[in-house]
Input
Amino acid sequence: MDYALWYSRFGNMNASDFTRMDVAEVDHTQSRRSIIVKNLLSRLWKEEEGQDLVEYALLLVLIALAAIATMGTLASTIKNVFSNAATNLTTS
Output
């Protein structure tokens, strides 16, 4: 989602936009902040535009972790190859 689309949906909102609820639904012992958080999380759960970005980020993290895991094995293999080459050069 580009910035202009995000701003057109969320940028011009204020706190009162997140607190509009029917009075019958509100438990009066809840704080105003918890109502705001519940409404915000409910709204974010229903929105689907940002899910692609999250999926790509998770895929990138998975690829990075796989690369880091293989680097240790690859590093020791390369070290052994160069050690063997150095040994062969000094003995010849």
About this structure: The CA atoms of residues 20 and 29 lie 17 Å apart.
